[in-house]
Amino acid sequence: MKISEASRLSGVSARSLRHYEDEGLIVPGRCGNGFRDYCQSTVDRVLVIRSLLDSGLPVRLIRDALPGLTDGSDGDTDAVCARFLDEVQDFRDRLAARIAVLSDQQAALDAYLQKARRAGP
């Protein structure tokens, strides 16, 4: 299928599809005229990619883990999944730490504003 159809089916813009290709996340086929040719498995892969990106995972992590998560092979899938889940947990823990710091900063700003408003202009 053409990029426009793949875009429609996946809900991802053609620009994003090209970006995923540039990042090595997908490899669409090519027609004789050089146009991209997307199959249903590529569209399915795009849906997984979109879900992972929406979760905030970096492209690097997705690119490293995606082959083992979507290729359907039974080879070392358990090891890939375990490594991927460990990295996702690490990413989540770093995110939680950043949120805690931001929450502390927000609380400090709230306290400052409250104190400043009581003091008046």
TrEMBL record:
Domain HTH merR-type: 1-68
A GO molecular-function descriptor: DNA-binding transcription factor activity
Keyword set, alphabetical order: DNA-binding, Repressor, Transcription, Transcription regulation
Pfam families: MerR_1 (PF13411)
Superkingdom of this protein's organism: Bacteria
Entry annotated with the keyword Transcription regulation: yes
PANTHER family, per the entry: MERR-FAMILY TRANSCRIPTIONAL REGULATOR, REDOX-CYCLING DRUG-SENSING TRANSCRIPTIONAL ACTIVATOR SOXR
UniProt protein name: MerR family transcriptional regulator
Organism, scientific name: Streptomyces filipinensis
